[in-house]
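Hi R.,

As promised on Friday, here is the backbone we talked about, encoded as structure tokens. Could you run it through your design pipeline when you get a chance and send me back a sequence?
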């Protein structure tokens, strides 16, 4: 009986030692890191790494489609909006069957222009944030960031792709 208990204990030790070792974790991490970032992943990383003067909160995808005027958009998107005291926001749009990068970029530029018009009379001190807004276009994604530190935002976003 003692032999059986010792063998069982040794087998459990070996399983724990080799089964939970570094090799298994690395291969799982490699698989996870190879997966493409979702729109929300990208927005979360920007939110965590960029300075904002205002409080940003995640908004429904329908809000993003509305303010960016994307009729029929079915792609993956994420949208963080401010309290509206500032024009700060993060928007990430992945392409879909109806909206390629060019259409999404046009929507982003139109949104920024509209915001410049709105904030020029409402809060003119906020306009430079909009004039220096980051609009990044990748192979299948458009990212918009209006922040207190657009230079950092630009660098961070480019580093994601």
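Update: got your reply. Pasting your designed sequence below so it's all in one thread:
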């Amino acid at each position: 009986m003692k032999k059986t208990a010792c063998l069982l204990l040794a087998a459990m030790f070996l399983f724990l030692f080799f089964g939970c070792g570094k090799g298994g974790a690395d291969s799982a991490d490699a698989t996870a890191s190879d997966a493409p970032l979702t729109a929300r992943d990208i927005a979360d990383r920007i939110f965590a790494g960029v300075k904002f003067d205002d409080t940003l909160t995640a908004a429904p995808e329908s809000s993003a489609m509305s303010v960016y005027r994307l009729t029929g958009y079915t792609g993956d998107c994420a949208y963080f909006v401010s309290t509206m005291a500032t024009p700060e926001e993060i928007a990430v749009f992945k392409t879909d069957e109806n909206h390629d990068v060019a259409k999404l970029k046009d929507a982003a530029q139109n949104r920024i222009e509209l915001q410049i018009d709105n904030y020029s009379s409402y809060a003119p001190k906020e306009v430079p944030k909009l004039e220096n807004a980051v609009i990044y276009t990748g192979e299948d994604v458009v990212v918009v960031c209006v922040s207190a530190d657009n230079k950092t935002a630009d660098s961070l976003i480019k580093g994601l792709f």
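One thing I noticed while checking it: The beta strands are 57-59, 77-81, 89-94, 134-137, 141-146.

Thanks again,
M.
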